[in-house]
Design brief:
Length: about 450
C-alpha cells in the first residue's frame, strides 16, 4: 500500500493557505473591480479563474505525487535515469524556480536524495549523479532552506566520510569536495561546522592521497575558503597545511605551499614548525615545488622566524659529515648509476638553499647584510667545491657573484682566497665555472677560510 510522506501533509497545509491568498488576489486583480465584487459578470469571471487555478494546482500536485511515487518504487537503473533528467533540466536554477518545478515541494525530493545518499554512499551506487543533484539544491540562489535541511541530517559528516573511503571513485570524491565548497562559501558558521566535524584533517589527508591533480586543485579551493573568514579555526587550517609539507605527493606539496602563503598573511603569526617544514621541502626534485617553497620563504623572512630561517638556509650549504659520509659507498658501488634516493636529496637541498639565498639578497639588502654576519660567503664557496653535484656548484657560484658585485669587501676577500687565476675564471663566467676548474681549485673552494662578517 502506498504511504504518503508526512512532510507532504505539512506542504498541503501550506498550500491551502496559499490558495486562500491567491483567491483574494484574483478578486482584487479583476479590471475595474473592488472587493467585495458587486458585478455579476465580474463574479462569474472570478469563479472561472479560481476553478482554472484550482485545476492547475491539483494537476501540479498530482504530477508531484506521481514523480515521488516513481522514485520510491524505482530501482537503481530507473533512479539513475531520473537523476540524469533532473540534472539536465534543473542545472543553474534558483530556489524559487526549483519550487515552481516541484509545485512548492522541492524539499520532498531533496529529502529522498539525502536519504538515499546516507544508505548507499559506502557502496558508491550512482554517487556522482546523486551528489551533483544535491549540489543543484545547495547551490541554488535563495535556497538556504535546502542547505539547512541537508545539514540537519548530517550532510557534512557524510561528505567528509566519502573522502576517506577507498572503494569510492576519485570523481565521486571530487563531487563531495565541491559540495563542501558550497557549504563553506555559505558563511562563517558553516565553515566552523566543517572544522568542528574534524574536516580539516579529513580534507588534508585526502589532498595528500588523491591521484587526480584536478581533484587536488578543488581541495585547495576548499582549504583556501576555510582559512578566509574563519577566525575561530583558521589556525587549525594553518597547522593542517604545515602537516602536508612532508607529503610524498609533489602536487599536494605545491598546493599546500601556495595556500600557506595566503594563510600566513591572514593569521599574521608563525608556527615554529614551519621553518623545518619549508627547509626540508627544498630536497624536492620538482622545480614547481621548489619555486613555491622559495616564495613562501620570501614571505616568512618578514615574520619572527627570519633569524632561524636564514641560519637554516646557510646550514644547508654545508651538509654534515654524517650525511655526506653515507654517499661514498653508493658512489663507489656503481659510479655510472646515480643513486637518487641515497645522496641527491641532500645536494638538491644545498642547491635550492643557494638559490633561495640569492633571491632573498636581491629582494632585500638588509637581509644580504644579515647573511654576511652568518658567514654566507664562506659557505657559498664550500658549496662551489661540491663536485658531487654540479647544480650546487652553479647556484652557489651565481649567488656568490651577486655578493661580490654588491659588497666591495666581499670582492676583496674572495679574490684573495681564490687566487688570481681562479678569480678571473669566476668573473668571466660564474655560471659555468664548475666545468672549468681543476682538482686543486676545487680544494681551494671547499677548504676556504674566508671570514667576511660585514658589508663595509
Amino acid at each position: 500500500m502506498w504511504q504518503v510522506d508526512p512532510q507532504l501533509f505539512i506542504w498541503l497545509f501550506r498550500l491551502t493557505g496559499f490558495c486562500g491568498c491567491l483567491s483574494q488576489r484574483l478578486r482584487a486583480a479583476l479590471p475595474g473591480s473592488t472587493y467585495p465584487v458587486s458585478s455579476g459578470e465580474q463574479r462569474s469571471q472570478l469563479q472561472d479563474r479560481l476553478i482554472m487555478t484550482s485545476i492547475k494546482e491539483q494537476a501540479a500536485i498530482s504530477r508531484l505525487l506521481s514523480f515521488l511515487q516513481d522514485w520510491d518504487n524505482a530501482g537503481k537503473a530507473t533512479r539513475s535515469n531520473i537523476l540524469n533528467n533532473f540534472i539536465k533540466t534543473n542545472q543553474g536554477k534558483t530556489g524559487p524556480q526549483l519550487e515552481q518545478e516541484f509545485s512548492q515541494g522541492a524539499s520532498l525530493f531533496l529529502a529522498r536524495l539525502t536519504t538515499w545518499l546516507r544508505l548507499t554512499y559506502m557502496t558508491g551506487s550512482c554517487l556522482e549523479k546523486l551528489l551533483r543533484s544535491i549540489g543543484i539544491f545547495l547551490s541554488a540562489v535563495s535556497s538556504n532552506q535546502y542547505l539547512t535541511e541537508f545539514l540537519e541530517v548530517g550532510g557534512v559528516l557524510t561528505l567528509l566520510e566519502i573522502l576517506g573511503l577507498e572503494r569510492v571513485k576519485e570523481e565521486d570524491k571530487k563531487q563531495s569536495v565541491k559540495l563542501l565548497q558550497i557549504i563553506a562559501n555559505s558563511g562563517r558558521k558553516y565553515k566552523e561546522l566543517i572544522c568542528e566535524s574534524y574536516g580539516v584533517r579529513s580534507i588534508a589527508e585526502f589532498l595528500a592521497k588523491s591521484k587526480s591533480e584536478k581533484t587536488q586543485e578543488e581541495v585547495q579551493v576548499l582549504l583556501d575558503s576555510l582559512v578566509h573568514g574563519n577566525p575561530k579555526y583558521q589556525n587549525q587550517v594553518y597547522k593542517g597545511l604545515i602537516a602536508l609539507l612532508p607529503s610524498a605527493c609533489p602536487k599536494a606539496q605545491q598546493l599546500s605551499l601556495q595556500t600557506l602563503r595566503t594563510a600566513q598573511s591572514i593569521i599574521g603569526t608563525t608556527h615554529p614548525s614551519i621553518v623545518a617544514g619549508v627547509l626540508n621541502i627544498l630536497r624536492t626534485m620538482h622545480l614547481e615545488v621548489q619555486y613555491e617553497a622559495i616564495e613562501l620563504i620570501k614571505d616568512l623572512v618578514n615574520y619572527d622566524v627570519c633569524a632561524p630561517l636564514l641560519k637554516g638556509l646557510l646550514d644547508l650549504l654545508k651538509p654534515s659529515v654524517k650525511e655526506t659520509s653515507k654517499l661514498q659507498p653508493k658512489i663507489l658501488d656503481d659510479s655510472s648509476d646515480l643513486q637518487l634516493t641515497g645522496h641527491l636529496p641532500v645536494f638538491l637541498q644545498q642547491a635550492a638553499a643557494a638559490k633561495a639565498i640569492r633571491v632573498l639578497a636581491r629582494s632585500n639588502s638588509s637581509l644580504a647584510e644579515e647573511m654576511l654576519h652568518l658567514q654566507v660567503v664562506h659557505s657559498l664557496m664550500v658549496a662551489m667545491g661540491n663536485t658531487d653535484h654540479s647544480n650546487s656548484q652553479q647556484q652557489a657560484s651565481l649567488t656568490l657573484e651577486y655578493f661580490v658585485q654588491m659588497f666591495p669587501v666581499v670582492k676583496k676577500h674572495v679574490r684573495r682566497s681564490m687566487g688570481e687565476e681562479l678569480y678571473q675564471l669566476f668573473l668571466s663566467n660564474a655560471k659555468d665555472l664548475y666545468m672549468k676548474i681543476d682538482s686543486v681549485q676545487v680544494d681551494i673552494l671547499a677548504n676556504n677560510k674566508v671570514d667576511v662578517t660585514k658589508g663595509e
